[in-house]
Design goal:
The structure holds two protein chains of two kinds.
Chain A lengths: L2 H6 L4 H9 L2 H25 L2 H17 L1 H14 L3 E5 L2 H14 L4 E4 L3 H6 L1 H7 L3 E4 L2 H9 L15 H12 L7 H18 L2 E4 L3 E3 L4 E6 L3 H7 L3 E7 L3 E2 L2 H15 L7 E5 L13 E7 L23 H5 L1 H6 L10 H11 L18 H5 L6 H14 L5 H14 L2 H14 L4 E2 L2 E2 L7 H4 L4 E2 L6 H15 L5 H15 L11
Parallel strand pairs in A: 1-10, 2-3, 2-4, 4-7, 5-8, 7-10
Antiparallel strand pairs in A: 5-6, 6-9, 11-12, 12-13
Helix pairs in contact in A: 3-13, 4-13, 10-11, 16-18
Chain B lengths: L2 H31 L17 H4 L5 H14 L3 E5 L2 H15 L3 E4 L3 H6 L1 H4 L4 E4 L8 H7 L2 E5 L2 E3 L4 E5 L14 E7 L3 E2 L3 H10 L7 E5 L4 E2 L7 E2 L6 E7 L1
The chains are: A alpha/beta, B alpha/beta.
């Protein structure tokens, strides 16, 4: 199961990011959209008021559910079954795909219409359906566009964020067999008509699941276009792929999730459609599926359970707010992350799901640990702390950079010994004469390459702090007033607290 | 043995596998959580919205006003009408204005009384699931107008809530180009939690297959962030508040 991630990730984040950074349009588009979503979220959460109380409540509900996931998931499965749903459990991606394909084959399906589902992306289910001759059609406008382009989503909420209307017009014109003007209404109008036919002729409707309600066995979908409703209303068979952690206990808890999710994702008070589906159609209903399957997928999720550093990852409600807030995502876009999930959540979730925390090479290092993701997260997942845990595990497992460890060892040898430090500085001051230009070092060779491509490294000063220490010390003795005793006491208290291992928290956010 | 029988057998076989798998799957979760499996419902001290929110309520007039503002902001249309006669007149006028040919409506008694069948002279009005041998999804898909009676409405989010049943199709609020939702004023609530708590109270066995909250016309911003209306669902939605 980790083969999928390893297979699709042939290059480093740096190479993938360079692809993104060189694409001027992508950078503009990602910035524009994420900026818009971010300000939408900000005004929506401010208008709603008491935002931190709601976040805390959302976090508590998620913490509680995950802490008792065995009870709630079992309850959900029993209740959904009582509603007439066929429940399946899949430990791995391979198992989930096998079950989905078996249903499609049993139903002799020719086509499957799909609404947005990150789990099916994770499973590469479209490719698998294609391999048995079943056409899988993405029906979310953005997903449909990138499916025509043969690409993968680059944003969890706006998957085709990286395409402009001219590129989209070209793709859709090829599909239409005639030239369509690069006008949003015309393009969307074509897709509406085209997909209407697909909805009506499809044998199977396939969805993801935003929330599953344990006490009633219902599954809940949030969307704006109406395609998820189409997929769950028109075809005779419905298959829902659900991550095993999507559970909440009750409809009452859904109010909190419905308050947090749309506001955090798009700044809406509620998405245009919020649907709760409880079982297949009743015997005297005239629409809705005759047969409904829910495949509950683990695929690495349970590895987070019982891990104090990563269990909270399962609280994620997939809103995308951390992507929009992240300065790194906003520069490099989603494809640079090289996994199904991008942005800060993807940087942590991808290695966690693949259980190769130690090997995942580079994405955790492409973070400035600024904590904007934590601030944005509606259920307060400490993603920036998790990025540090990832880095630590990588080094501890011996998968850190050899050069970096050697450098750190050398640094500690030099810094730990005054004489070595003095000699090193002397050599540096002498040696740098060869490369200093206009007070800085611009050389792009060896270890300086990465830094000096965008910046100028400062040169060592002629007189170091150590050279000047005697002078500085004498001045301080003469001019210095004694420290205010109150300030001194406070500082000592802080030092003492630190020594006792206190001061732990999320960098002042807690 | 015919196809249907073998399929049924296959489903039963899958069912047995699934029940066996459920035990090991859930036991695996308990093991990872590092404790024996809990059979008793855990105490959930944080159920639902924060306490300060539960007592929040607008007056009847405020609810209607706020609903209108929210629904319009999402791109919907709102009319305040005094009685069902006005509703009939409003929909008839729109049918003329839009030259509507096909109309599908839910089979609720309140809508029967509207008698749109006679009022809309130039349109074919179909009543959802009123005969067994009709392709009802196709009737909804071709309809210009869909007419539904809301079960609830929520002012705070500007949402209309519709529940499915024999005479209330999910397709009627989804497939037609223009949607009319008739909302009796007394069904208007302040908070989303009010209808949601109702569903907990109704309980699993009595819940309908489909519960849908509708907060405006179908929309997308997937092409260059440009707002597009009516991507898959109705592009024009009228909320007709009565009383």
């Amino acid at each position: 199961m980790s083969s999928t991630a390893a297979g699709s990730k042939q290059s480093t984040v740096k190479q993938r990011a360079e692809l993104a950074l060189n694409d001027e349009f992508l950078r503009k588009a990602v910035k524009f959209t994420t900026e818009r979503l971010r300000s939408g979220k900000k005004s929506a959460s401010e208008e709603h008021g008491n935002w931190d109380d709601w976040r805390e409540r959302g976090r508590q509900i998620r913490l509680h559910t995950i802490a008792h996931l065995d009870y709630y998931l079992n309850l959900f499965a029993d209740n959904a079954r009582a509603n007439g749903v066929h429940i399946h459990f899949a430990q791995t991606d391979v198992e989930a795909v096998r079950i989905a394909l078996e249903i499609a084959q049993r139903k002799q399906a020719k086509s499957v219409v799909k609404s947005k589902s990150m789990v099916t992306e994770e499973l590469h289910l479209n490719r698998a359906l294609d391999s048995i001759g079943v056409e899988a059609i993405e029906t979310d406008l953005g997903e449909y566009i990138i499916q025509l382009a043969g690409e993968t989503p680059s944003h969890i909420i706006i998957p085709a964020i990286h395409k402009n209307r001219y590129q989209i017009a070209d793709l859709l014109s090829a599909e239409a067999g005639e030239t369509l003007a690069p006008d949003t209404q015309i393009l969307a109008g074509f897709v509406r008509k085209k997909l209407r036919e697909k909805f009506l002729e499809a044998d199977i409707g396939m969805t993801g699941c935003n929330f599953a309600i344990a006490e009633t066995g219902s599954m809940v979908l949030f969307e704006n276009e109406g395609n998820a409703r189409m997929v769950t209303t028109v075809p005779k068979t419905q298959i829902t792929l659900m991550g095993m952690e999507r559970i909440i206990p009750s409809f009452e808890d859904l109010e909190v999730m419905a308050t947090l999710l749309p506001r955090s994702a798009t700044g809406q008070k509620l998405t245009v459609y919020m649907s709760a589906i409880t079982g297949p159609r009743r015997s005297d209903d005239a629409d809705g599926p005759d047969e409904m399957h829910i495949i509950i997928v683990d695929n690495g999720r349970s590895n987070q359970l019982g891990d104090p550093e990563f269990q909270e990852l399962l609280n994620c409600i997939r809103c995308g707010a951390c992507l929009n807030a992240c300065p790194v995502y906003r520069h490099i876009g989603g494809h640079a992350y090289g996994g199904t999930y991008s942005g800060p959540i993807g940087a942590v979730l991808t290695p966690a799901l693949n259980s190769n925390v130690a090997e995942w090479d580079d994405i955790a290092n492409a973070s400035s640990l600024c904590g904007a993701c934590y601030e944005a997260c509606p259920v307060k997942i400490p993603l920036h702390d998790m990025l540090v845990y990832l880095r630590r595990r990588k080094v501890e497992s011996g998968n850190g950079s050899k050069l970096e460890s050697a450098g750190m060892k050398g640094f500690s040898a030099v810094m730990g010994d005054a004489r070595r430090m003095r000699s090193a500085l002397k050599i540096g001051q002498f040696g740098q004469k060869l490369v200093v230009r206009e007070g800085g070092i611009r050389l792009r060779l060896g270890p300086l390459k990465g830094w000096n491509t965008y910046r100028v490294a400062p040169s060592l000063p002629k007189h170091t702090f150590r050279d000047r220490w005697k002078e500085v010390d004498r001045d301080a003795q003469m001019k210095g007033k004694p420290l205010d005793p109150a300030v001194q006491a406070r500082m000592e208290a802080i030092v003492k607290q630190r020594q006792q291992g206190g001061g732990h928290g999320h960098g002042g956010h807690a | 043995m015919d196809m249907a029988d073998t399929h049924k057998e296959w489903l039963q076989q899958m069912e047995l596998q699934s029940q066996a798998k459920q035990k090991s799957f859930i036991d695996g979760i308990s093991a990872k959580l590092g404790r024996p499996r809990t059979e008793q419902p855990p105490v959930h001290p944080f159920r639902g919205a924060p306490d300060f929110w539960r007592t929040f309520e607008w007056t009847a007039e405020e609810r209607i006003e706020r609903f209108g503002a929210n629904f319009r902001a999402a791109g919907g249309y709102v009319e305040r009408l005094s009685d069902m006669d006005e509703v009939r007149r409003f929909i008839s006028d729109k049918a003329v204005e839009w030259s509507a040919k096909y109309v599908v409506r839910q089979g609720q008694p309140e809508l029967d009384e509207l008698n749109l069948e006679d009022a809309l002279e130039n349109a074919n009005v179909a009543v959802w699931n009123s005969s067994v041998d009709e392709e009802w999804k196709a009737r909804a898909a071709e309809a210009d107008f869909g007419v539904v009676l809301a079960d609830y409405a929520v002012a705070y989010t500007g949402s209309i809530t519709v529940l499915s049943s024999k005479n209330k199709g999910r397709s009627v609020s989804l497939l037609p180009t223009v949607l009319f939702a008739v909302i009796p004023a007394e069904r208007m609530r302040t908070r989303l939690g009010e209808p949601l708590q109702q569903f907990d109270a109704i309980g699993r066995e009595e819940l309908p297959a489909g519960i849908h909250f509708i907060s405006g016309p179908s929309r997308s911003a997937d092409i260059e962030n440009d707002l597009t209306i009516g991507v898959h669902g109705p592009g024009v939605v009228y909320a007709l508040i009565v009383g």
